[in-house]
Amino acid sequence: MSEWVHVAHLEELTRGRKKVVTVGSEEIALFLVGDRVYALHNVCLHKQRSLAKGTVFNGRVVCPGHQWAFDLETGWEEEKEECQPTYEVKVEGDSVHVIPQRRVLTEAPAVRD
Amino acid sequence: MPHTVVTIGAGQAAAVAARTLRRRGHDGPIVLVGDEKYRPYQRPPLSKEYLSGEQEPEDGFLLDEQWCADHDIELRLGVRAARLDTTQQCVELEDGSRIPGDGILIATGSRARRLPGVEGDRIVYLRDLDDAARLRGYLQPGSRVVLVGAGFIGSEVASTARSAGADVTMLEQLDVPLEPVLGREMGEVCARLHRDHEVDLRTGEVVESVTETPDGVTVRTRRGTVVDGDVIVIGIGTVPNIEVAERSGIAVDDHGVLVDEYCRTNIDGVFAAGDITSHWHPLFGRRLRVEHFDNANKQSMAAAKNMLGRTTVFDDPHWFWSDQYDLSLQYAGHAERWDEVVVRGSVEALDFVAFYLDAGVVRAAFSVERGAEMYLAKELIAAQARADPAKLRDEDIDLAALVS
Ligand SMILES: Cc1cc2nc3c(=O)[nH]c(=O)nc-3n(C[C@H](O)[C@H](O)[C@H](O)COP(=O)(O)OP(=O)(O)OC[C@H]3O[C@@H](n4cnc5c(N)ncnc54)[C@H](O)[C@@H]3O)c2cc1C
Ligand code: FES
């Protein structure tokens, strides 16, 4: 079940820097930042807006709905102390793969200022 | 560093402060004193998801019981604080008890402004859960809702009432809703949203009297308009709850409790956050009182950190949202005057950001369905950026490129 699934070619991300893919029933938003790809559940945990329509800034993706800002790596929202599900990603050559299984932190990563 | 922290008020700001204090390692007692009978809860759903019935009170509660137990947070609910004895370092409650505390957060928020003498079962000033529960009972297909005030809360109630199938009449004293905040053009956009959804919006109408009978309410205006309804909702602004501060020798002005950019009042160890503060804002170079959720969160976080000796300036550019008719409206910054409003996107299509420029500097922004760009607008405002209007307008230029 928890296997790598090919979801996109890197070049599909280079223009818009983001893309929504669907694996089974999972709607996954991919973000290309520098040369890294991040994958978060596309449906915002707050009120279901699409994260792919948000902005990526300073290592976080900001939801267009109410400006919740999720860490790209962990999905953690520092102020609200809630976690948007993320997925493990790897890029092999031109091929982007994810494991379509949600990862959710239940408590805050170490405090940053 | 304080041993015991007491918050006066147990709303948004108090709850977030309590959470921040624990998270930042404060291990002394924390007591929240609140005059409502409910645990701290979020108010934004009261005009939206709770009012429409999509959400129940529990969904809006801020500190769950287990978390409070695990983190040793004491909630003293249903009791008012009378004053703060700043020499004895304790909070006196109206029931006569005293709670010692060497770190105090005044977080009493604000209350709805009322029309003198206008009170009754069918007359609602929407501020707390009980108000919202009462109003919710009136929202049904075909019921008649009269709104006084086309500000943000009135507008949200209009939207929720329309989706419940109620008939809505809105009386606004200005010629254009929200004109002082948004300007004429954007105020017209807000008016259009209501009219597009078959709200009977009447501007330039000043309420003269409201009478309630067993089966309805009647509103008369100065111009002679008469409107009958099943319920009337009055949303004409708020008044800060400054009484506790006043009685305790804490400096206030008409707008609220005076604090500096570190959320400190004039008394050592006494801080304030949220709707109650008239805060010095370094970015805008003046005092401001704002009544928004994000301010309550960020300012109380800053207050908590300052209480613990981690010096933190509160200079967030201010931001709020208002969800109406399935559209996301957002506003950031602060501008009382501007010489240019630059629109990026399409007003016609309700998909745009409007930037308010004063002498070339971006001071505020208002958006409809552009939450993503709003984040960058906040950055521009915080940086007091001088932005070229042509570039702001040009959708081929990524706003991020304008944020240095
Ligand atoms: C209907 C509604 C909709 C809103 N929608 C939005 C929105 O969409 N977006 C947005 O940004 N903001 C919105 N707001 C504003 C937001 O909810 C407030 O800015 C926020 O609640 C402020 O938090 P606070 O802690 O300062 O005050 P509050 O949450 O009001 O908490 C203060 C508490 O202190 C209590 N208190 C006062 N005096 C005493 C005393 N002497 N002793 C004990 N307790 C006392 C009060 O009863 C209250 O419970 C909305 C507000 C309302 C009413
Ligand atoms: S829907 Fe994402 S922040 Fe509200």
From TrEMBL, chain A:
Transmembrane spans: none
Record-linked Pfam families: Rieske
GO molecular function: 2 iron, 2 sulfur cluster binding; metal ion binding; monooxygenase activity; oxidoreductase activity, acting on paired donors, with incorporation or reduction of molecular oxygen
InterPro entries reported in the protein's UniProt record: Rieske_2Fe-2S (IPR017941), Rieske_2Fe-2S_sf (IPR036922)
SUPFAM superfamilies named among the record's database cross-references: ISP domain
Keywords assigned by UniProt, alphabetized: 2Fe-2S, Iron, Iron-sulfur, Metal-binding
Gene3D superfamilies: Rieske [2Fe-2S] iron-sulphur domain
Ranges for domain Rieske: 5-98
PANTHER family in UniProt: 3-PHENYLPROPIONATE_CINNAMIC ACID DIOXYGENASE FERREDOXIN SUBUNIT, FERREDOXIN-RELATED
Entry protein name: Nitrite reductase (NADH) small subunit
Highest classification ranks of the organism: Bacteria, Bacillati, Actinomycetota, Actinomycetes, Actinomycetes incertae sedis
From TrEMBL, chain B:
GO molecular function, one term: oxidoreductase activity, acting on NAD(P)H
One Pfam family from the record: Reductase_C
Superkingdom field: Bacteria
Name of this protein: 3-phenylpropionate/trans-cinnamate dioxygenase ferredoxin reductase subunit
Domain Reductase C-terminal, chain residue ranges per copy: 319-402
InterPro entries (UniProt xref): FAD-oxidoreductase/Apoptosis, FAD/NAD-bd_sf, FAD/NAD-binding_dom, FAD/NAD-linked_Rdtase_dimer_sf, Reductase_C
Source species of the chain: Halopolyspora algeriensis
GO cellular component, one term: cytoplasm
Keyword Flavoprotein: yes
Co-factor requirement: FAD
SUPFAM superfamilies: FAD/NAD(P)-binding domain, FAD/NAD-linked reductases, dimerisation (C-terminal) domain
Domain FAD/NAD(P)-binding: 4-299
Record keywords, A-Z: Dioxygenase, FAD, Flavoprotein, Oxidoreductase
